[in-house]
Amino acid sequence: MNSEILGVVASFLITLLIAVPLGKYLAKMFAGERVWTDFIKSLETGLFKLAGIRENESMDWKQFLKAMITINMLWLVYGFFVLIYQDKLPLNPDGNGGMTPDLAFNTIISFVVNCNLQHYSGESGVTYFTQHFILMFLHFTSAATGIAAGVAVFKAFRDKTTTDLGNFWNFFVKAITRLL
Question: Domain range holding 148?
Answer without folding.
Answer: 37-179
